[in-house]
Design goal:
2 copies of one chain form a homodimer. The first copy, chain A, is mainly α. Helix content of chain A is 74%, strand content 0%. In chain A, helix 8 runs antiparallel to helix 9. Chain A is elongated, with a radius of gyration of 20 Å. The N terminus of chain A is likely disordered. Chain A binds a DNA duplex (30 and 30 nucleotides) through helix 3.
Amino acid sequence: MADVNARGNTRELVLDAALASFGTAGYDGTSLDDLAAGLGIRKQTILYHFVSKRRLLDAVVDRCAGDLAAALEEVLARSRAEATAATSAGPPAGGPSSSDWDRVEDMVKVVFRIALERPVLLGLLREVSRPGSPGAVRVRTHLEPLMARARRWMEDEMAAGRMRRTDAQLLLLSAYSTVVGVATEIEVLRAAGVGPTLRPVVRRRAELLRFLRSSLDPSA
Amino acid sequence: MADVNARGNTRELVLDAALASFGTAGYDGTSLDDLAAGLGIRKQTILYHFVSKRRLLDAVVDRCAGDLAAALEEVLARSRAEATAATSAGPPAGGPSSSDWDRVEDMVKVVFRIALERPVLLGLLREVSRPGSPGAVRVRTHLEPLMARARRWMEDEMAAGRMRRTDAQLLLLSAYSTVVGVATEIEVLRAAGVGPTLRPVVRRRAELLRFLRSSLDPSA
DNA sequence: CAGGCCCTCTACCGAATGGTCAGGACAAGG
DNA sequence: CCTTGTCCTGACCATTCGGTAGAGGGCCTG
């Protein structure tokens, strides 16, 4: 159909379409022929850029994970800058863990914002988080370093008394599955005819933040 | 493999295996040949009992929905009996809506118990709640009457002032997607190597109950 | 024993799928 | 002009899939 191909960006177009299809129809439910037809292209072109269907999925996962990691990295850097600015401005004894909490909150917020702005991304995550799914290992290798890093940071903060003691990994996994669960919720709502309502998503976010706060805030 | 076929229950065996496979590998990811091979049976035997793959999915959905409906019906009947017993024992002006709330709580509890005892059932629900999935319409036709009934009941209670006024449908859908989301959470946890921990599920249940209470309890 | 009936099997089919191979279009550069 | 490399395509292939046709066997009833 709309083969608006300005030369050279075929790869990107394929990645976009593949993300959408994998996220909605699933990996098995996506055929390379259909994917190509939707782009006004032949299947062999897809196989030229990405050697196999499996590698195409890997590429899609890689790009999404890259986007996510970049967004997190950015908010992390910004948050860190603000934190140092605040601590250099005021005395370090001002608020013991408020900047920690702000950072956590910022992370949650940016993740939810991405989830809302690019729902297909959540669809892919949901699809790929099924055990045994191809690409499950791929997404794990992407997420594991992030998780490990967050976990180390949290455990450091706990050791320093700026966070309450809890099972950091379980907390992180809980937060993760909340976000993935939002994908389900959006789909359920849409299937029930309810339009893209913001309320439930906001509620989930508030729920997650409250849960995190009650688990982490030392003054609770 | 273990073709322990005591004659006559082939149908049930197929239904069990199909539920497990549909719930984990998905509809597209399930092949009739594999399904049959796992039962020490030929694919044509499956097609004899269930005319087509699609109808097999329908049958699986039907049975699951039947089980769920039966469990709900049972707890509903029991709860109703207790309610009438309580109101006949004490004066009707005793507690205005406490039995209402008990009923809601019982329903939530029984659903979560089923979710824990038969996780495959949740897997199927998760798989089938994807829009465009075959069987999505089937599960909708099963769930819609239940939903409509619950909604009417809630709206009656609201009109009578025994429940707080809210969007009943949105509330029900939120509860529904919470339950489906539990499936995701369990899978995520298992994929991360965390054993079948009870805690997060219990936490979700508490969260849902709190949300429902805060939305419905008139004394809040 | 005959004749259904229920259940399962072997054999086969057409369609679709992921993937291979050789080659065409075309721009860059010698 | 010819070569070279990039990008894309048509023709083809092997496999797998869901589904059909028909035969055979156990079993109950007449």
